[in-house]
Amino acid sequence: xxxxxxxxRPELHLTVSATTRKPRExxxxxxxxxxxxxxxxxxxxxxxxxxxWANVHGHCYGTLNSEVDQYxxxxxxxxxxxxxxxxxxxxxxxxxxxxxxIEPPSMEELERRLRSRGTEDEESLKLRLHxxxxxxxxxxxYHARIVNDDxxxxxxxxxxxxxxxENNGGSDQHGSH
Length: 177
What we know:
By secondary structure, the chain is of the alpha/beta class. It has seven helices and nine strands. The chain has a four-stranded mixed sheet.
């Protein structure tokens, strides 16, 4: 869904997260993720190089400050595709951040989508679904929620929300779409 949003709003910048997990087939370092080993990741943590980072699904993921700052200095809005731990950590560092929760229409549909990707073994799939239950419980703490039931509609609603927040200076009016 986010790919479609970015195609319609190319002035937005999607950050490239860093991770300690191994690349999947077709992923490119610096484009899909910044693939780091645990020592490299730990060194960056010690240097306070991350806006946020967390251990998710057994691997470390994080957003480098440099990935965000360079675009904010240009006056561009920045999009981070991160889990709930990361989102709440960003909000601590950047209280003006707006959190949009993109959710599946149901847990059954989420499982179907994950299985159809074919990127997870059964153990990893179960962990992701378990974590998704927890994340859904935290969704009310976001500024807005978007159910990704129909791709075109979810993209339209996401762009409307981004436009609203950009045009209102990051207004913290909560909404659900």
